[in-house]
Design brief:
Length: 221
């Protein structure tokens, strides 16, 4: 008899408990389904920030190897937020974020926000999304910010591998790095989604990388 349903049931309960535990998430409106460690979230939340927080909470749970976020944003507040209001808040947030350069622009259609422009580093691209996802009236964020062209280097694979080895959270022996020009592919296994993200960040930190394909598989202890 397969034990997968029992394992998935344990994961489902743990995810529900974690959603209940996180103060920025109202778990009452969130449904959780699990299949082979992949979690699907469905239902309604009050803001895009809550949608993001719910996905992060699920990814923290041991045994979760992926999250499909089907939560939709439906604010409970009766006070309407216009497109002009959103545009003003987005502009203010981007300009006040120290890690976001002036090259990042935002296009607003209703409550759907698209970020565009060109930056030097991936952390700047991520900072732009973090700056706007907490804003009232933003229901969805598409991050289309790109990196400036950068040259390849012969020692990129070695230097990324060394960075992963230095990271106390990672088992470097289980992670393989391959480089093709300015594209890095990560393969192998990690024990949590947080470790997967740590390896991803190590690869993006290289000044000779423009794309990272993260194929690391989460296999719990």
């Amino acid at each position: 008899m397969s034990v997968t349903p029992r394992i998935d049931g344990d994961i489902q309960t743990a995810v529900q408990d974690e959603l209940e535990w996180v103060p920025e998430v109202d778990a009452d409106g969130i449904g959780v389904a699990v299949e082979d460690g992949a979690v699907s979230l469905f239902g309604e939340v009050d803001s895009y920030a809550e949608r993001v927080a719910a996905a992060k909470a699920a990814l923290r749970v041991r045994g979760v190897n992926a999250v499909v976020n089907n939560l939709s944003v439906h604010p409970k507040s009766s006070s309407p937020v216009t497109e002009t209001d959103v545009a003003k808040e987005v502009k203010r947030a981007l300009r006040s974020a120290s890690a976001v350069p002036d090259t990042v622009k935002a296009e607003i259609q209703g409550h759907h926000l698209t970020l565009s422009g060109e930056v030097e580093w991936d952390y700047q691209r991520q900072a732009a999304k973090r700056a706007v996802r907490q804003l009232r009236g933003v229901y969805l964020v598409d991050n289309e910010v790109t990196l400036k062209e950068r040259p390849s280097a012969d020692d990129t694979e070695q230097r990324i591998t060394e960075a992963i080895t230095r990271n106390a959270q990672l088992d470097a022996k289980a992670i393989h790095v391959s480089v093709d020009g300015t594209t890095v592919t990560l393969t192998g296994t990690v024990h949590s989604w947080a470790e997967r993200q740590q390896a991803n960040s190590a690869a993006w930190a290289s000044p000779h990388v423009m794309d990272v394909t993260n194929q690391l598989v989460v296999t719990p202890w």
